[in-house]
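Priority: low. Protein: DNA 3'-5' helicase. Input follows.
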Amino acid sequence: MIVSWTKQQQDAIDARDTSLIVSAAAGSGKTAVLTERLVQLIADSSSGVRADRIVVVTFTNDAAAELKNRLDSKLRLLINEKPDDRHLLKQQILLQSAKISTINSFCFDLIRDNIPDNGITSGFSVLDDTDNKVLKVKAMDELINYYSENEYDKISFMYDRFCIKDEKRLIDVIERADSFLASVPFRDKWLKRAADMYSSDFKDSAYYAGLFDSVINDLEEAQQIADDNIGMISRIFPDMSDEKAVKSYAQAEEDYDKISSLLAIFQSRRFNDNAEAEQYSTFSDLVRVGKAVHDKALREIYKKKRDIIKKKAVKAMESMISVESDYRESGEVTVILAEMLKKFEEFVWEKKCEKNALSFDDGERIALELLADEDSSGNIIQSEIARKISEYYDIIMIDEYQDSNNKQDIIFKLISKNYKTNQAGEALYGDNVFLVGDAKQSIYRFRLANPKNFINTLHNSVPYMKDSKNKNQAITLNMNFRSSPQIIDFVNYVFSQIMSEKCGDIDYTADEMLYFGAQQFTAGNQDDRVTEIAFINEDPDEKEEEQETTAVINHEAVYTASRIAELLSEGAPVTDKNGEVRPCRPSDFCILVRKNAYINIYADELNRVGIPAKGNEETGYLKSREIAVLIDLLRIISNPLQDIPMAAVMTSPMYMFSISDVAIIKSLDNKKPLFPIIRGFADGEYPEYTDMFLRERCMDFLDSLDRFRLDSVTMTIGELIGEIYDTTDFISVMQLYNDGDQKRANLRALIQYAQNFENSAAFDGSGGLNGFLRHIDRVIENGDYAQGKVSSAAGDYVSVQTFHRSKGLEYPFVFIAETSTKFRSESNTVVCSADGRIGYILYDPVLYRKYKTFQHIMLTSEEEADTRSEEMRLLYVGLTRARQKLFINLKCGEKALKRVNSIIESIILHNGNVNEAVNGAKSFSDWLWTSIINHPDFKNIAERIGLDVTNISFSGDVSVQKQFTAAYAKNVCMEEAVEESVEESEPDDALIDRMNDIISFHYDRTLSETPAKLSVTQITKKLKEKDEFFDFRLKRPRFKSKDTGKLTGAERGTAIHTFFQYCDFERAISDVSGEIEEVVKKGYISRAEADSVDKENVSAFFKGELYARIKEAISYTREKKFMVAVSDLEIEDESLEKLKHSDGMIKGIIDLMFEEKDGIVIVDYKSDRGITLNQLKERYSMQLKLYKAAVELTTGKKVKEALLYSFELKKYIMIVI
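Result:
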């Protein structure tokens, strides 16, 4: 297929002999451009680029794998066209050795190839973030003990400056400073600079200059406002000769002179004295105007502006109080802190050497040490290793460059060809790099990403020209091939008003705007794609903590779910990328929220109204139900005398004892732990209790526990966990839950976490099951592991996720919800900056008070500005996820409207300039309201939601009339409440009788003895046995026996079913043995199970008539799970009547179903031996009838056939349904 590239894309692909930075906006096809450029360079024999001499750095392993696959596929296509091209054949072989990886993988490979003599060997393991944190906690304990024993004066000094009750605040300071240092290229140099900045006299320090610059900037703003106020007097008073007008004008001039004089003091870089402080902090009372003719609204604005002037004047003088003592105290603290941080790093490194393990931060730090040297002036230059690497590699490509941190940026520069520095000694890129990214989408500051690396490189490059000799050029890709023109217009409208260099780190000019390129959206109803803003009569949730966001009814979630339900019921049209139009389905919708706490609220509400929805929880791994059960099982394997873990495991889905069962067992002997009681009960020591069914279950439980305890001695922890999965089928049980895929991924991930622990513990002797459990306890105290990764292959459900998780994804319909969620604002005890400045919240042990130093106030202000900029970029990412239509929710309850009024007031006070409102925003909604306020429709919206804007005049651009439409949730547009007379109600006799009936009702216990859920297999088995009583009490199946080494018939049947569930049909056709091995490798079946799969039977299936039909079908689904109410099934059977009149549920898993033009065909695999097709038909007819009824109920489609396929007979038979 021939791709039509834009001119900018073609330039990015074709540019040669220059380094290129590509600013690629959302949806601009950057990955396609990067791939095409690489392919053309590799395929062109005259380019001089060898496929094994390219470095391509991505920021995720998945992205690296995808890029490598794309390159390989494109090369294969070229080779198919030119099969005799030896250059292409050679490049394809060399491509397998190309460095296409994450930056971490690149650094670790570099270290292994050039291992330094620092205590780590080339076989080092890699610590994940959680394990690294646990290791640092141990090192912190050693640090505190070391200073308490050997440097008591120093730690005592630090205690006095930070601690109130214990050492927690001091530990917090050290940990936060250490965390910050992870982003610093040269840790020791930063610590030296931080201490040196306090070595000079205060007036000669950078802190002194920064303090005055900040105050001067504030006073210049106050001076501008004072000047505006002078001009306002003539607008307030129509008659300037009036006495009140004259006095007011004189007062405005006096205010201006006062602020100007105060500004002059600080511009001369000196402190004000007491007399000046008294003079300039006192302002005369506002002139009383009495009955003089004047504009009241304008005078109110004048008054508020004057208040701003006074506040800024007072703030300027208060900011100078105690600054010299702050400087002195902070200097003493910084010297000792720098020393403690170095000692802390020594303890941490010692522990890493013991484990022969490195963290991701270590990888970057050591790689930088290998690549960087210093010249005599202290400038960073290439080491010999860096020079060799830069000469070896032909091309260096960095994807998502905006997400690089400061260390990574210097690493990239040092390995570039012809590396150079500018006049200030700062590192610059050489001439063989290709950088792709978008500063507007840099949202990983919490991972230490610094978008200024991208912005600075962009500014140091010139616009691309084909014949230019400049070796650093830039290209902008701003044609958006993802979104409808209505979304693009709305995004441009919003960010052209709010995004700037001051807030967002980049000016949203014409170069940064999006331009329409998705031609599939040129047809159809354009109005259906206009952004919809819903105004919801609800106030923001003011609880700040994630776990506290638990409103009883979230009206916004209710509204959002109802709106999605409405669109689904209407069959709202969706335009796919190929231009085809179809009705929408749940997977077309995505809801974005700012906090994890809202994910389940929205997912639960959608599920409540019958819309399938899933939330991507990002936290809570070790507390998740499935992992908590496994950890508790490991605890009782290690020590079975622990009652709480024992009871938790017994009542879990793994063993399914009831609470009553455990209570009965415990009541046999209240003085003993559970374990010996269970053992005694199983051995017959309690003859007074005769429940043989419970005794048998206890025996099964003890058998499995004893086997696991024995296995724990001979197996590694990872092997033990795997054995637990294999013998209990716990993974399959957990997979039946709504979030079964996530639970399965979590359980698989536990094996990897255990293996990681064993790899590092092997070096320091802290391994074994007990060591792992102690390690887990430390992890729980200090953090958590990441959730297991689930394939995005998905199903048909609404996705609810955070803005961060949505990066790189796209959906036809995107709802931006909970926009009033406040930005995080933490007042950390220590704040650091990249240039070596550091500020503290110190404690005064004499006055018993904490206080913020002026350095802390300055740096916190900068930190908040950076955080706000990232939040703006996060909003940009969220809005650009939509392909067809955006839906935005805005709360407009009483408190929310007060916030809107404050935004309006800010804009008025600054003469229509929105910068102050933008820079003071506390949530996404503040920015969205700022944009709406300037819209021509705002007055209509204000009227509908109850905002009084009668005296406000905004000049909105009429050309933006169609940027969005307004929707109003129920009760939003409420007229003023009218009191209604309340009449005393008469008793409702019918209701009273009904309540009495309910109270006196006696249950028919027959149904209470019937299980709430039964599988189809259980029902058909009971029907087949023709039990008169129809007893549904089910025994727990025995575990797979290890004594004989052979599989039972049921286990062999499970093995072949599992193989057909997970195998790749296409690969299995040509290589059955190879595909069986692949399924074993992925962990779906064991070796014993694989050996039991008859390859001849498998091959016969794929060669048969049935598979030919499956292959030609419209679609097919394997392992289709369902759970339905028996009463909803349209099936007549006397034996089911008892269940049909209950609330009982039937669950089942259909082996395979496929759809043909005239209906659905159900296939059920059978592995029964020594049985004819007619016997199978007689045995399983009811099962297939139940399947048919369930499929027709859940899909709404007709089931035309039901087939039983016998692997033993290699044939199938049709069941009459």
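Residues 544-551, 972-983, 1005-1009, 1026-1044 have pLDDT under 50 and may be disordered. The first strand starts at residue 19 and ends at 24.
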